[in-house]
Amino acid sequence: MGIVEECEEYDGGQDAQHILKIVVLGQLLSLFLCGTSVASQLLVDNYMVDTPVMQNFINYFLLSLVYTVWLALRSGENGLMYILKNKWWKYLFLAIVDVEGNYCLVKAFQYTTLTSVQLLDCVAIPALMVLSWIILRSRFRPIHYIAVVICLSGVGTMVYADVLSGREDGKGSGMLIGDSLVILGACLYAVSDICQEYVVKKLSCVEFLAMLGLFGAFVSGTQLMVLESAAIANINWNWGVGLLFAMYALCLFGFYSVMTFVVLHSSATSVTLGLLTADIYSLFIGRFLFDYKFSGLYILSFVMIIVGFTLYSSVATYVPEFPPGRSNEEAENNDMEEVAAPQESATPLRNVCRQLCTISSE
Fold it and tell me: How far apart are CA 264 and CA 191, in angstroms?
């Protein structure tokens, strides 16, 4: 067997530094999500402000303000005008999926229970794996499935702790509607995340964030005028409300910005597994702010999710064929306006294989 064939059969193991980086950044993303949850809860509890569309609109506007302006400074095929002319409809579709995914999940809390949301939201994980298999040609190894089972077991432990503590008591008025919204939102998240992984690995993180911000602001702004005009007019503005809106927007802006980098160096499925700890962080903070009851099972759940997330990140998914495209490194260079000539696409597995091939040939 030749050295190239041997390299392509490499198991895709990651070094400890790479795994640690992904795990730490994954938890940073969870903390960002926790920040958005706490800000939203405080707005509702303390100021009777329930405007999720407006909160998300501010985030998309910030993304557009930063990254679309950045993209506008480029020229040629990497520039704003070329992308708008040739790809506008693709990014409009992506923005609709992302905006409505956020809206469906938030709206579901009015109809169903926290327990149902936590359980059914996990539909995004198998949906992501299926889409990765079909669209990105990813092939999963047994350790990936084991890791997913461990993470979902951690979610089950967390939900069981919620049942024991009574956090699921606030039942909504239409369980079927609420559960359907959660499943729909989870599937929309899966589509959005797989599109994100494709764009950031094949094209550019800045292009993804710029176009999502631009079209996301348009879609959410339109939805805002239709659904929340009256609610916004009734807001009693003060410094507390303003700070909470700023906290929500900045946390979500940080989440979107960091997530593109993490997805570039791992996968959308891996990131989604890491985000399962966000509810636990929210619980820890809610223990002091909202008098949530604490259980040792939450610690067990957190450990199980981290173990599963680490296992999943320790081995890269296998891609049997590598069609022409841009590598992760080139996507990073593109974002720094140091675009190299197109080369074969590279996953973490492919990078390790290339290094081994170089060493062996020497």
Answer: 16
